[in-house]
Every structure is written in C-alpha cells, then in structure tokens.
Amino acid sequence: MNLLTPIASGTIATVAAVLAGLLVLAYILKMRRRRFEVPFSTLWQRVLKEKEATSLWRHLKRLLSLLLLATMVGLLLFAALEPELGGAREDARSIVVIVDASASMKTLDEGNTGEQSRMEAAREQVRLLLDGMSADDSIMLMRMDGRATPLSRFHGDLAKHRKTLSTIEASDTPANLTASLSAAADALRWRKRPQIILVGDGAYPEDALASATWEKVEVPATEPDAATFKNKQLASVDLEGIEVRYQPVGSAANNVGIISFNVRRYISNKLNYEVFIEIQNFSEEPATRRLVLFNGDSEIDVKEVQLAPGQRITKIYPDLGGGAESVLRARIESVKDEASDAFALDDEAWALMPENKRQKVLLVSIDNLYMEGALLIFEHLDVDKLTPEEYETAFAANELPEYDAVIYHAYTPQNVLPSPTHLLYFKPSGPHSPFPITGSLERGRITHVSQTHPITRWLEMSDVNFDTLDTFSVDPSAAEVSLFESIRSSVAAAKKEGRRKIAAFGFDLEGTDVMLRVAFPLMMVNTLDWFAGADSDLITTYTTGRPARVPLDGTYGISEVLVTMPSGATQKAPLREGYATFFATEVGVHKLVARQGGEDVAEIQLAANLSNASESDIEPSAELSLGGKTLERPVPGSATPRQSLWIYLCLMVLLLLLVEWYTFNRRITV
Amino acid sequence: MAARAKKKATKIEDDRSSLFNEEFLKKLEYLHMVSRKTFVGQNRADRRMRKIGSGIEFADHRKYSTGDDFRYIDWNVYGRIDKLLLRLFEEEEDLHIYILLDASKSMLIGEPLKLHYAMQMAAALTYVGLANLDRVGIVPFAENLHAHLPVARGKGRIFKVFDFLRGIEAGGPTNLEEATKSFIHRYKRKGLVVVISDFYDPSGFEEGINSLRYNGFEPFVLQIYDEKEVNPNFHGDLTLVDCETGFAKEITVSKSLIDAYKREHEKYCAELSDFCSQKNIPYFRTHTKIAFDELVLKIFRLGGFLK
Q1: Is residue A519 part of a domain?
Q2: Which CATH number applies to B94-227+267-302: 3.90.1150.10, 3.40.50.410, 3.40.50.2020, 3.30.300.30?
Q3: CA nearest A426: which of A330, A348, A344, A503?
Q4: Cβ–Cβ contact A477 with B under 8 A
C-alpha cells in the first residue's frame, strides 16, 4: 500500500486529534433530555432496578457507539491520505510538467496546413506524455507564461490532469523560464526521482537558459568573489539532482514583428508628439511589410518597409500633430504576394500619449510682466488676470467662473476657489498661507532641490539670488513635500488635499532674478503640468508579463483598482500609497479605475505590447541546452496496476453510518 | 418560545362541558331499561341487604336470650322440641351505594382523560342506582377525600350529580389507604363501595380495599387505564417525570425497556385482579377507548352491581 499524502501528515494528525477530542467531548457532555410525564413512575423504577444489573453492558454499548464513530472519523482521515493498493515502486517518479503558454505558443504552424497553434500541439504532446506515465508517477502540471502557475498538486490521477490540461490557453506574455524552473525545482525538493518535463517551442531568452546550474557550487571563502557568487547564485536556478527533459513543438520561423513602439509629447509644444517604432524580421528570408500608423481609427502614416533576414529597423516619426485621439496604433501588414507570418500577436502595437488638456488659469496679481510673459508662451493655457481687489469683489459677488488653477502672486486671499481648483502661491503671508511660515532668510540661497517631485524636474536653482526667502513648516506625515530648501529650511512646498493640489514658493518675483533664468518657465510648466496630471515622465506604454507601478493621483486610502482589459474582462489590482501594481496579460489598451464610495476617483489608460524580441523570435528549438546541458526527450514510465482506495473507504464509512443509524434507531447502541 | 411550547405541550385539556349532554342522558336511560329487563327480572325488591332484622321473610332461628322480644318466639317449635327459639326475618332496607372516584393527577392523563371516563362511569352507575331506588353518594378522592356529594335517592337528582361531577377538582397524589380510612370514619352506614381508579398508588391498593372490607362495606373495583400507559410510544434519551410525585429519572428508553415495562404493568394489573378474586371482590378493568355504556352492560352481565 502506498500513501499519496496530498495533505501533510502533521495536518492530518492535528485534525485527527481535534476530532477525537470533539468526539469524546460530545460523548461526555450530557444532552438536554426531553421531559416525559408518566402517571406511575413506580413501575418504571421497578423495571429500571431490574435493568441495572445490565448497566455494564449499557456502558459498553455506548462505548461501542463511540468506537464506531471514531472508526468512521479514522477511515475518513485515512481516505484523505489517498491510500493506493499496489505498493510504491522504487522507480516511481515525481514529475513537474511545465507547459509553455507564452505568447509565441499562439503561432499557427502546427497541423497539416498550419491552422493549428503551438498551444494545441503542446496540449496534445502533454496528453501523449500522460498516456505514457507510470501509475506510480506523481505529476504536477505547471503553466508557464509571464508567471509560473502550478495547476495541480502532485498526484497520479491522469483523468484529472487531462481535464486540467484542456483549460490551458496561451497568453500574450513572454515566457518566464527562470521563474518556472525555480518553482518546479522548489516543488520537487526532497521528492524521489524528481523530473521536470518542459513542453514548449524553446523560444526562450539565452540568459534564462544559461541561468540554470546542475551542480552545487562551493561558496568562495574570500571577498570579492563571495559577493559576486552570491549575486550569481541568487539569479540562477538550482537544478541539482533534478532530471530535466524537453519536448519541442512548432516548426515555423517566419515572423516580422514590432518589438518597440512608443510615443512622447514635446515639452515645448505639448500639442505635437513624436513616435518611435522598431521592427525586426526574424525569418531567414527577406520580407516586405506595410507599416501603418493610426491615431485612434485614423491612418496618419503608411510606409512600406523591406527587411533583410534578421534585420531590425528603427523608425521615428517626428513632429506629428493633429488627431483628436490619444491612442496610437501601429500595424504591420503583408503586402501583395507576400505570405503573412505565422505569429500575429506582435504585428500590432499600441501607445498612449499623455493627456494634453487645455487649462483655464486665473492669475491674481498686480502687474508682473515676467509672470504674464511666462504664461503666454504655453499654448494650452487660457489665462485670465485679476488684481487682488477685483478678485475679492468678484469672489464676494460669486461671479468667478470655474478655473483649473489659480496663481496668487504676492497676495494671500482669505477665501480661495473650492476644490478641485489647484492653487499656486508666490510669497504667501499671514494666517491663510497654505504652509505655516516659520521665518524669513535675508539674501538666502537655495541649497537643495527635491529630486523626485514633478515640479522640480530639470530645475537648477543653486545660483539664483533672492532678497528674502520665507521658510515654511512642512509636515511629511500629511504627505507635504518640501521642494526647495535653504540650509534645511523649506522655502517651497507642495501638497495634496483630496483632489486639489497646492504649491507655494516663499519668494515673489520682485526680489529675485529667477525670472531671468531658464528655470522659471520650466518651474511654471512643471507646476501646471503637475496640476493637470500631465506628467511627462509618466509611462503609459508597458510590456506584457512584467509588473509595473502606475501612479494614480488622489487615491490615498484606496486599496484596489479595477482593470478593464482589452478583451473586456475585468480584474482587480492592488493599489498602495497612490500606486497601482499593473500586470498586463493581454496586448492592447487597458483602463484602470480607482473607486471610492461608488464614485470614480481616478482613471488612467495604459497600453501593453508584447515588445519582446525573444518572444517574437518564434523559431522553435528542436534541441534545448539548459545550463550547458542538452536536454533529452521524455521517456514513458513502467506501468504498475494500482487501485485507489479512498472511494472504498468512503463507502465503508457510509456503511458504518447506516449501521450506526440502524442501531441507534433500534435502540441497540443507546 | 421553547418554554411556551413546553407549557403548551404539558397543558391538560380538561374540558368537561360536553361530558353529560343529552345523548349521554339517553344512554343512561337505556342502561337503566336494560338493567331492569335483563338483570333484575322478577325480583320485587330492588335490592336487599343481607341483614337479619325486622322484615317479613323468614330467615333463620336462634336461641332465645334474656331480653328478646317474646313476640318473635316460635311457639310451635317450643311445643315440639321444648326449646325457646326466636324466629329471625331478613331486614329490608334501601341499599347505600358509594362511588369512590379517583381524582388524583394521574387521572388527568390519557386520550380521553381517564378522569372524564371515570366521571361518565360514575354518572352511569349513579343513575342506575338512583333509578333502582337506592341511595347513592359520590366521594372523590386523591391523597384524601375531596368534597363529596351526599347520599340521596331518586332519579331527579341526576342533574345535581352531573353538576357535582363537572365541578370536581382534580390533582394531588393518590393515597387509597388514607382516603378509605377517612371514608370509613365519615360514612357509618354500610353499603356497596364502587372504587373507580387507576390504582396507581405507590403505597399499594391492598390496605385501602381491605379497610373497606373489614368495616363491612362491599368493595367493587373498577380499574381504568389509558392504552398509552400500557404501550408507551416514546424512546430515546429522556427524563421521566412522575406527574403526581414529581419524581424525575433520566433514562434511555429502548425496545427491551418498553417490553419490560409492559410486562411490569401487566403484572401490576394481575396483582390487583388476583387480589380481588381472592377476596371475592367484583373487579373490572377497562381502557378509555371502550365506550362507557358497553362497560356498564358488561358489569350488569357479570353481576355484582345489580342483584
């Protein structure tokens, strides 16, 4: 007899102890009895006196009942250990079958006419492998795409494995061979005759194939070799003692694919943008393709490109403008007389431009030509100007329209426009300053500029002169950020209050030469871009199969985000401290929405592309070399007839249950 | 909720309003007719006591003693054998019938209640007695005697009897011995004592019945039981509670226990029956499913009540 022990023996022992305790407790505890009135208890007492002579037997019967129940519990727990008749063979193997479900497995090159995908062929190969497995072999199925996903535990139920196998579909993510081999090796640790069977097309990165180690490497005793070794060891996959075999699928190699596609707006002119695209011919024949670029559904460029075998070409489309949509799409199409390639997933790619929203800005200031001039150069701004007196009058009369942002220059109003209007202060003063003023520095200099905040990006402020610099009290625990510091005192700060963003500079433009520097318009554009959420560093185009952190403004306190995938399916992703962890499994445009109290608080669109040259190189490998060792084909195991016993144990429990029921109802065991 | 359900479950439906209706009265009349035609026959006297006294029918002779009435000396016998013998006659007098009705708490069990059945029996026997010009009284008892219906005669009193029976307060444990002792002290006039009870007396029934016998009363035993008392249909773990004494016992009722109980009940009834046979006491045993008029006819047929 052999125990498969799908549940740890320790767990079974704990459950057995708890159940035994509960059973005994249940027998010790007295049940609340029904009361029954009789007219003449004397007769019953006489009968019971006679029966007392047999009380030992009565106790024994109760004990028998307890034993019967304990036997049932024991049989059920034994069934949970999945005992099998036939005995464990010494040559029984523990096998992890890694099924490649990466993007390249969508290649249509199998079957007589190439209409069958590699995924279908892989499933068929695994089915054949399962047919040849020994009944003693314990098998685990593992899916390999951007992640390693175990699909079963170790067991020998081939029918169950076939059912699981039929659910595996190829995803749009590249294969993560290292993670899959590591997971399989970990699962096989301490098991007898461990074996990994890899079923796939062999289109894996060279570094992943080289990362495997077959022998335990001795730790070097001396530095710096030890540190180098440690780093190398962390990255490698320890396959010591594990037999790895490889079953290839796939035949075609003709593929031309987009391996890079991205877009960015110009900083100086946010209405225009440039596009970067990279295409590679992975086949051994020259290829001609038509490259079409779309803005939304509108074609904005069509080019015919010719690629030599293995050639990679880069195209840059500068100064593109117009087009209302922010979604760009590139597609390569086969031209006349040219056969289309077998792998269609990388023929299309998406990119998203950061949103370019026109902003309505109110400047509250006594005339300042530098400020007005700086605002005039930005084409996407609509600027209104009011003096402080006009502002107060209009505010009191409730005549102010809605603005995206208000700039208060050398003036700190008592009343500000309601959220979500963003506020920018120059030299705020008094109790209504957004940050408490702690002091003033005469002829101060800026000694430190925040390296991380969007407002201070690309700013150089070290040689700027100031007559006076007001210092602010900044509370980091309230998510307030110091932008500029003069000898550890904050002289510029920013914060968020719900959906409203506030920035304040502790100087006015009258007593400084900053407006004569490049830093000034840059500071203004950074600030207004930050207000608008138009972060020029924001990456909106990702590759599938790799986790990315995406910032979502105003989402503090929200723990998850709803992701709508290109197929329309939705899933939830974690959101921590304003950053969503995004893992794309499909190519196309994804929408992330953060909700709170039934309302959409923040929303962002992201594009995901395969953009993986290793994955687009679909040429299958008939032979695979892993860690310098060429992998052999899998071999069938020797079959041994075995009989699973759990069903009979359950039937036995059922039978005992019937016996218990009968004896109880017949008052035999009570 | 559970407490309310429990209360509901133990509540006794003691509705006596329809016990003595028109139909019941018709049955009583029928019983009276039958008793006269079938069982009494040609006897002129309704019932005579076995008592020597001043009647007209010769009974026996005895020796003359000083102080005896000269008028009863049999001078013919004196002439023949030269001995003074006195002529004795059977004394004719009204028969006194007492109905000792068990109104203990155990009588409030059954379907219908044993007490209701006993009341109907008592009413029937009272009616027949009254109709036969006997004097009948009803004495309910439990631990001791309850309020009684005085001895009286005449059919017209039957409605008073009904009212009395309706008003009997039931409850308390059974103590036949104490009840009969009190009865003997209270009623000096001897007569027939019909004891209607389930005889579920923890101290036994013998002393009570013997007390009646020793004091010149003629006991007539009528045992009533409910079928469920003989064949209990409960099982499992439960607490048995004696409805009279409150004695509680946790038991697990099995089939074998039920069988043993049935045997014990049968044995108890047999003890009562044997006791009555040995003492020449008429004994009837019935369960509440048998119609009371059938039982009365059976009593008439077997004799003992009517002579």
Answers
A1: yes
A2: 3.40.50.410
A3: A503
A4: no
pLDDT in tens, A612-644: 888 888 888 888 888 888 889 888 766 556 677
Q: Tell me: the pLDDT tens digits for A170-189?
A: 999 999 999 999 999 999 98
Domain that holds residue A545: 541-613
A35 contacts chain B (CB < 8 A):
yes
Smallest CA–CA distance from A667 into chain B, residue: B254
Tell whether A557 is covered by a domain. yes
Partners of residue B109 in chain A, C-beta under 8 Å: 37, 39
Q: Is residue A60 within 8 angstroms of chain B, CB to CB?
A: no
The verdict on A49 touching B (C-beta cutoff 8 Å) is: no
Same domain for A234 and A120?
yes
Q: Which residue is closest to A59 within chain B, CA to CA? A: B252
Residue A371 lies in a domain: yes
Phi-psi region of A423 (alpha: psi -120 to 50; beta: other; left: phi over 0): beta
Instruction: Choose the closest CB to A33 out of B6, B250, B268.
Output: B250
Strands A34-38 and B236-242: parallel
Determine, for residues A39 and B245 on separate chains, whether the beta-carbon distance falls below 8 Å.
no
Main-chain phi, psi angles of B58, to 5 degrees: -65, 140
> Is residue A50 within 8 angstroms of chain B, CB to CB?
yes
To the nearest whole Å, the CA of A23 is away from the closest chain B CA by: 18
Percent of chain A with pLDDT over 90: 30
Summarize the confidence of residues A212-224 as an average pLDDT: 68
| Chain B residue set in contact with A, beta carbons under 8 Å | 6, 10, 106, 109, 198, 200, 202, 226, 229, 232, 234-245, 247-257, 260-261, 264-265, 268
pLDDT (mean) for A251-273: 81
Tens digits of residue pLDDT in B102-154: 999 999 888 888 999 999 889 988 988 888 778 899 999 999 898 888 888 88
CB–CB contact A33 B238 (8 Å) = yes
Kindly state whether residue A483 falls inside one of the protein's structural domains: yes
Distance to chain B for A48, nearest Cα, Å? 8
Count of alpha carbons within 13 angstroms of residue B86, beta-carbon side: 16
What local confidence, expressed as pLDDT, does residue B40 receive?
43
Dihedral angle over CA of A139, A141, A142, A145, nearest 10: 150
For residues A205 and A122, state if they share a domain. yes
Q: Give me the number of domains chain A comprises.
A: 5
Helix (H, G, I), strand (E, B) or coil at A368: coil
- Specify whether A576 is located in the same domain as A525: no
User: Which residue of A31, A43, A65 to mutate against B (max B Cβ within 10 Å)?
Assistant: A43
Comparison of pLDDT for B4 and A228, the residue scoring more: A228
Least confident of A254-263, A556-565, A589-598, B8-17: B8-17
What is the pLDDT averaged over residues A35-63? Answer: 76
* Claim to verify: residue A346 and residue A378 sit in the same structural domain: no
Spatial strand order in the sheet of A2-3: A2-3, A83-85, A643-644
- Contact (CB<8Å) A43/B249: no
Q: Which residue has the tokens 């307030």?
A: A480
Q: Which residue of B has its CA nearest to A34?
A: B238
User: Cβ A37–B109 below 8 Å, yes or no?
Assistant: yes
In a shared domain, residues A447 and A509: yes
Judge whether B170 and B133 are in contact, CB under 8 Å: no
pLDDT of A508 > 90? The answer is no
CA A34 to chain centre: 60
How do the domains of chain B map onto residue ranges? Answer: 52-90, 94-227+267-302
Q: Please give the C-alpha separations between residue A318 and each of A264, A273, A327, A331, in angstroms, as whole numbers.
A: 10, 7, 17, 18
Q: Above 80 in pLDDT, residue A3? A: no
Answering whether pTM is above 0.90, one says no
DSSP string, B99-132: EEEE-SGGGG-TTTTHHHHHHHHHHHHHHHHHHT
- What residues in chain B have per-residue pLDDT under 70? 1-13, 34-57, 90-94, 302-307
